[in-house]
Amino acid sequence: MRKLDIELNALKTQKHDTELQLTRIKESKSEVEKRNESLRREIDILTQDKTFLNRENTNLLDKMKRLEEKVDRTEQSLLDAKK
Fold first, then answer.
1. In the predicted model, is pLDDT for residue 83 greater than 90?
2. Which residue range is the domain that position 63 belongs to?
3. How many domains is the chain built from?
4. Which phi-psi region, left, alpha or beta, contains residue 2 (left: φ > 0; alpha: ψ -120 to 50)?
5. Model pTM?
6. Rounded to an integer, what distance in angstroms lies between the CA atom of residue 41 and that of residue 26?
7. CA distances from 82 to 64, 75, 79 (A)
């Protein structure tokens, strides 16, 4: 009987330790899931920013090209006017 009581107490302690470990693992999992979701939102925002900046860059390159062509035409017009 005494041996069984000792074994029972040991098993209760082991059960308690296992439950604590399970609780810590669940908390850790929850933290990882929150971090994962946060990173997904950050990736979405960065992707949107990248798309916007790529579009802006393309627009500005087009504008720069048009302005350079205008400068070339104006310079040519000035040279023609000097002749």
1. no
2. 1-83
3. 1
4. alpha
5. 0.64
6. 23
7. 27, 11, 5
Neighbours of 67 (CB within 10 A): 10
Q: Which helix (H) or strand (E) holds 44?
A: helix 2-82
Query: Tokens 């579009």 correspond to what residue?
Result: 55
The position carrying tokens 């994962």 is: 36
Amino acid identity for residue 35 in this structure? R
Distance in angstroms (rounded) separating the CA atoms of residues 71 and 63: 12
- Type of residue found at 69: E
- The rounded distance, in Å, linking the Cα atoms of 32 and 29 is 5
The share of the chain scoring above pLDDT 90, in percent, equals 98
